[in-house]
Amino acid sequence: xxxxxxxxxxxxxxxxxxxxxxxxxxxxxxxxxxxxxxxxxxxxxxxxxxxxxxxxxxxxxxxxxxxxxxxxxxxxxxxxxxxxxxxxxxxxxxxxxxxxxxxxxxxxxxxxx
Amino acid sequence: xxxxxxxxxxxxxxxxxxxxxxxxxxxxxxxxxxxxxxxxxxxxxxxxxxxxxxxxxxxxxxxxxxxxxxxxxxxxxxxxxxxxxxxxxxxxxxxxxxxxxxxxxxxx
Lengths: 113, 108
Description:
The complex is a heterodimer of chains A (about 110) and B (about 110).
Chain A: E1 5-7, E2 10-13, E3 19-24, E4 31-38, E5 42-50, E6 53-57, E7 64-68, E8 74-78, E9 87-94, E10 103-104, E11 108-112
Parallel strand pairs in A: 2-11
Antiparallel strand pairs in A: 1-3, 3-8, 4-5, 4-9, 5-6, 7-8, 9-10, 9-11
Chain B: E1 4-6, E2 11-14, E3 19-25, E4 32-38, E5 45-50, E6 54-58, E7 61-66, E8 71-76, E9 85-92, E10 96-98, E11 102-107
């Protein structure tokens, strides 16, 4: 069974640009959550999507947005990039969200210059 | 005060030793508890998942949860150099709240 796939693995962007990251969850999983990992703040929750609907949202500015498609694949978009957005962005897949286990992808390392 | 407290270490042990990791938490609403292992530049890998107080064993790994004390632990027996990684505790209501992670080095 394939795991969680995130693309691209690495990105370098310039301040002010926007970026889109992609996540394909484990087959059959309907919940996708996104997390940002930085050395200073650790892992922080961005949002969760379930059956194409955003179910929960973390405490991030509106520049961070996402969506989920009917095949459960999810994208995350960051607009007007800032240097502080440099981080490892991780996607977690779970069958139903809630009480079920969450499995992470390898992440997309975003560097903003 | 952070919701989840975890000593970042670093922790260095000789091969074959028992590694003991722990986290405390303040949110009584947490119902599900996980331990992840993260190697450098990789995503976190789920090691243990539990939702009740008590012990859960899986091979060399034992997870303990004490909800009354709001304290969870992970023990790694017969540690190997390949266990060198950062270990993250995580707790869940609707989202995962993570500890800071403990960096462990197992010396050959």
